[in-house]
């Protein structure tokens, strides 16, 4: 029996108990049926798909971080970040990286890395850095700026790519792996993975060597504890490596504070480099397509007529030029978040329990991110890349010698 359509102004009758139950209300649920097309169903399906996609890589990363943390307790000189990079590189070189792991590894090497860098800012209180005095700050600024400026030209002289030279300069001059990852995220390098692998290898090699040699050299030349603290913070690559030297030498707090003063320079140097590379790219693109001079009117030939469309459709417009694409900001959002966290910590409103837990949390996140980056390292290429190791040694010598001279003169 057919029924007439309901009157738009009338209310629809409630379904009876023996009517079609596909849209009927179930006990304890809304009157609206829950179908996969509703927001809740879509979100649940999307979350399940993300877990299936990222889960294998995240599980392997979690296992690697646990192993790196346990190994660090047995060998304190080997930081979790260094061990995680080594584990990732070993896995990629020995067993290879399964395609099922790649989405999760990409997630930790980018998203988790950005969170770790932002949280690093919560460890830096500007008043504590300023309390070091202008002498220590001058040593940090000159040593960092000089190393960052002269390392890329030396790399070009050695025949290294601009990307490799830039990332080695960044890692040695600022704060090791975190700075390398931040610069890599902010700039469009043509040899992204290979450059990052070379720079990470250099930081691991010379930073680990510094843990043994810096205290020995300081003792041999007779540095005071205050001078050792400034030299360690101004010359050693990783925060964790500085902490290892400071803890062994009794200058932990001062050395780490000097080092965090160096870490603050990450944001302006990343922004400056991004801006300069963007200008150079724009100038290069402009130089490739110079505008021809207009010929005199009596020599100008008529423009050839466009070919008629074969299928009656209007021809598609030319593809947009590269400069028309949406470009990333000069200062990436995670660097802005880093500066915001520095400002928050500097207010003194962060609870002590939070500041006490931050180094451990940041180290775990950084180890996870660096494990993901480590899986992109080809150890065989790294061993053959002697010029990258040479550049890293030169850059390390520059920052160590410059900061030591500054310490001897000012501190």
From TrEMBL:
Family per similarity comment: Belongs to the UPF0324 family.
The organism of origin for this protein: Nonomuraea monospora
Keyword set, alphabetical order: Cell membrane, Membrane, Transmembrane, Transmembrane helix
Regions that span the bilayer: 51-71, 77-96, 163-183, 195-216, 251-272, 330-350, 356-377, 389-410
Membrane topology recorded in Swiss-Prot or TrEMBL: Multi-pass membrane protein
Basic and acidic residues bias: start-end ranges: 311-325
Listed name of the protein: Sulfate exporter family transporter
Biased composition (Low complexity): 9-19
């Amino acid at each position: 029996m057919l029924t007439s359509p309901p009157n738009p102004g009338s209310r629809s009758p409630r379904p009876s108990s023996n009517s079609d139950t596909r849209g009927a209300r179930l006990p304890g649920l809304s009157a609206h049926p829950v179908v996969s097309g509703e927001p809740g169903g879509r979100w649940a399906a999307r979350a399940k798909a993300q877990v299936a996609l990222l889960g294998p890589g995240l599980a392997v990363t979690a296992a690697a971080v646990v192993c790196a943390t346990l190994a660090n307790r047995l060998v304190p000189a080997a930081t979790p970040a260094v061990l995680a990079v080594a584990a990732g590189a070993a896995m990629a070189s020995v067993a290879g990286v399964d395609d099922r792991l790649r989405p999760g590894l990409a997630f930790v090497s980018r998203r988790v890395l950005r969170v770790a860098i932002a949280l690093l800012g919560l460890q830096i209180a500007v008043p504590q850095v300023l309390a070091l005095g202008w002498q220590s700050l001058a040593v940090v600024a000159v040593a960092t700026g000089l190393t960052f400026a002269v390392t890329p030209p030396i790399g070009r002289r050695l025949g290294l790519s601009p990307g490799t030279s830039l990332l080695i300069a960044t890692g040695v001059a600022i704060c090791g792996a975190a700075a390398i990852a931040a610069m890599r995220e902010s700039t469009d390098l043509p040899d992204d993975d290979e450059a990052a692998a070379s720079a990470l290898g250099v930081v691991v090699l010379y930073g680990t060597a510094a843990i043994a040699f810096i205290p020995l050299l300081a003792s041999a030349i007779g540095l005071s504890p205050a001078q050792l603290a400034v030299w360690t913070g101004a010359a050693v690559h990783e925060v964790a490596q500085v902490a290892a030297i400071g803890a062994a030498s009794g200058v932990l707090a001062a050395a780490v504070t000097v080092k965090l003063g160096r870490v603050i320079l990450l944001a302006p140097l990343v922004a400056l480099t991004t801006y300069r590379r963007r200008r150079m790219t724009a100038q290069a693109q402009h130089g490739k397509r110079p505008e021809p001079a207009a010929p005199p009117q009596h020599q100008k030939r008529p423009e050839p007529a466009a070919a008629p469309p074969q299928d009656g459709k209007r021809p598609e417009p030319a593809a947009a030029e590269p400069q028309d694409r949406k470009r990333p900001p000069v200062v990436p959002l995670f660097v802005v978040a880093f500066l915001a966290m520095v400002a928050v910590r500097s207010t003194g409103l962060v609870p002590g329990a939070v500041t006490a837990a931050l180094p451990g949390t940041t180290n775990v996140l950084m180890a996870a991110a660096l494990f993901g980056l480590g899986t992109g390292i080809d150890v065989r290429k790294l061993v053959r890349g002697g010029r990258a190791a040479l550049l890293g040694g030169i850059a390390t010598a520059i920052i160590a010698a410059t900061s030591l001279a500054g310490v001897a003169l000012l501190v």
